[in-house]
Amino acid sequence: MGVSGFTRRFNCLFLRTKTYPFGYIQSRALSDSKTFSSNDAELPVLIVGAGPVGLVLSILLTKLGIKCSLLEKNKAFSKHPQAHFINNRSMEVFRKLDGLAEEIEKSQPPVDLWRKFIYCTSLMGSILGSVDHMKPQDFEKVVSPVCVAHFSQYKLIRLLLKQLENIDFKVCTSEASEQHSFLQGRRILMGHECISINATDHCIDVTASFEEGGKLKKKNIQCNVLVGTDGAGSTIRRLIGIDLRGEKDLQKLVSVHFLSKCLGDYLLNERPGMLFFIFNTEAIGVLVAHDLNQGEFVLQIPFYPPQQNLEDFSPEICKQLIFKLAGQELSDVNVIDVKPWVMHAEVAQKFVCCDNRIILAGDAAHRFPPAGGFGMNTGIQDAHNLAWKLASVLQGIAPLSLLHTYETERKPIANFNTALSVENFKAAMAVPSALGLDPTIASSVHQVINKAVGSFLPSVLQRAMLDGIFKLGRAQLSEYLLNESNPLGSSRLSKLRLIFEEGKSLQLQFPAEDLGFRYFEGALVPDTEPLVTAEEVPTGRRRDYIPSADPGSRLPHMNVRLLSTSPSQETLSTLDLVAGDQVEFLLIIAPIEQSYHLARAALKVAADLKVSTRVCVMWPTGTVSKAEASKTALAPWENYVDVVEVKRSADSPSWWNICQMTDKGAILVRPDDHIAWRAKSGVFGDPSLEMEKAFSAALGLRSVNIEKTSP
After folding, report:
1. Which of 283, 308, 285 is nearest to 297 (CA)?
2. Structural domain boundaries enclosing 623
3. Do 675 and 524 contact (CB within 8 A), yes or no?
């Protein structure tokens, strides 16, 4: 049985149990000044932008019982590959989406075909160096139940749409759309562009334009919450007047999507890899091998407008460039698409506005250089952070102000990832610099031509000047110069080897950042212990992830097995203990008296606050089933599970050692797998007051006003 199937069965087991004794019903009015109506004429959540982030958010919300629909301005989904690297944390999110992670793992190319970056003079010429980005621990699943993946964005979108279809979403054209069905949720309306937003005291009024019968028409949609996931050029961000801060125009490129089975077969057999950095006297480019078996590639070429324009990259010209970079002509090159794009490193000044009812996520909130795969992955984790908070507010569990913690938590992560991706981009530039091609000089020359001589030289002469300077630069790559016999060439090649040996080139994996990112304030109880280290500065170099149970951290992974009457010996991850289909907190304790006492207090407080909570009793390795002990200690509460550690070896650390805690401690986990509160060595005060504090912080409650429920 697959992991997702086992997890579904595991969750269903507890959905069938009585969550709270004495007929508890989850229903509570919002405690903010603004409330949401249940008017059928208003959609609870409108998502604008049906890229990976918008689609993932719609799946997460629907699983949590929240109605949502999407607007997408394009009439069809793009087949341009775009993002392709999925990090560990995103794969963990996908693992809870009904087998999505398993489907990606099954469908992606074998790891040995994409684990390397290769630097060469041509695809069939000399190799200047290569970097293997995978380490043995990456395959051992010690720190995560899943591995990273290489899977093109358009293929991911296909799988997400399949998931949405399975939960009754429909993709609609403007002709097929009906206002009522759209407002009932589970619709993706294609060819609709948001053109205005008006926030009233009661709702967000959105106007969308669409073409029907050859005429441009408008449609008004009212929603409680509007989420902009509409990409780097976000219309939502522009309409609500939120500015971006950071570095603009780091580089301009042309992206050429093409197919060549011949090239795929050659690289498959001779030099498999994910990225190929190609430097020769005729052309320079970066080739992304999306799928060597299928022969699918994207070539990234530097672009210098206005001296160059898109017409300079016709399919035929692109073919010739591909031949120059390949090192020979190829008989079957098929250029599918050519797109210009600009690399930025910017973060929105605000992620949330209009009384927390308009929210930005994904590239609409932050846009990074494509160095390390931070763009799509950070956006998916935005959606994961946001979904449970939206559900908590719309289901009356938490006040509207909880949504502001989305910005409090995610904006620092976006800022950090921006800085990290810039550092990684600079590392990528170290290789051409070592070869005598300083990219900053090329950029400076281009600016001088644009600003100094561009005002009086004809465009033809500007183009000739630019071409001449770049041709002179590429001459540094001639075989006559770049060889061990030439003192200058030997020195440059030595510098290049040093960059690779010291790990200072472009990196693919960032385990410490992918799994180790932490929220220091927001929907959590901040750590009372002072930080002993200075503020971390991104290095752009690989560092291994060290598990931690500090507040704001992702729950560490360990394999466990259910202690129950079930004969199943299957293991699951501690991350699987966090429900994906309801807003539910998880309290992890050891099977000791004081922790059972804390658990009873937590379940009582949770019932009074109308928030679902499950207790996990973590038994040490080798424990004989003692499920009756928890049943007696927690009675009459029934929403608990007993699990036992599954250690990799006798000398592997225990669960509490992994968490850097004692077994007298406890951990309260949020619905997004992040830790809301923890006690390292036990609770020494009133456990009920401690639990009230923890839940109030996690739910954004300004003060605790609990209607008492008898256990």
Report:
1. 285
2. 559-698
3. yes
Is-contact 645 560, C-beta < 8 A? yes
Q: Are 151 and 107 in contact (CB under 8 A)?
A: yes
Question: Rounded to an integer, what distance in angstroms lies between the CA atom of residue 286 and that of residue 320?
Answer: 15
Strand runs (DSSP E) across 146-269, as ranges? 149-150, 170-172, 187-190, 192-199, 204-212, 215-228, 244-259
Query: Residue 210 domain-assigned?
Result: yes
Q: pLDDT tens, 292-323?
A: 999 999 999 988 887 788 888 999 999 999 99
- Same domain, residue pair 62 and 187: yes
What is the model's pLDDT at position 174?
A: 61
The CATH number that applies at residue 393 is 3.50.50.60
Enumerate residues 6+ apart whose C-beta is below 8 A from 493.
128, 482, 483, 484
Is residue 436 situated within a structural domain?
A: yes
CA dihedral 41, 46, 50, 56 (to 10 degrees): -120
Amino acid at 354: C
pTM of the model: 0.91
Residue 289 pLDDT exceeds 70: yes
CA distance 487 to 442: 25
Whether the Cβ atoms of residue 147 and residue 105 lie closer than 8 Å to each other: yes
**Domain for residue 178, yes or no?**
yes
Using alpha carbons, list the distances in angstroms from residue 488 to 478, 482, 493, 498. Answer: 12, 8, 9, 16
Average pLDDT, the chain: 88
Structure tokens at 142: 């010690």
In this structure, the answer to whether residues 69 and 107 fall within a common structural domain is yes
* 159/259 same-domain check: no
How many other C-beta atoms can be found within 10 angstroms of the C-beta atom of residue 302?
Answer: 18
State whether residue 401 is helix, strand or coil. helix
Beta pairing, strands 85-86 & 149-150:
antiparallel
Q: Are residues 409 and 492 in the same domain?
A: no
Q: How crowded is the C-beta side of 326, counted as CA atoms within 13 Å?
A: 22
Distance CA 366, CA 127 (A): 36
Q: How far apart are CA 211 and CA 530, in angstroms?
A: 58
Cα separation of 438 and 222, whole Å? 52
Pairing state of beta strands 666-669 and 571-573?
unpaired
Token pair for 628: 């009756």
The reply to whether 98 falls in a domain is yes
φ, ψ dihedrals at 457, nearest 5°:
-90, 140
The DSSP code sequence of 571-599 is: EEEGGGGS-SSS-EEEEEE-SSHHHHHHH
* CA 484 remoteness from chain centre: 44
Tokens representing 536 are 């971390």
**What local confidence, expressed as pLDDT, does residue 290 receive?**
96
HSE-up (13 A, CA, CB side) for residue 338? 19
CATH of the domain at 262: 3.30.9
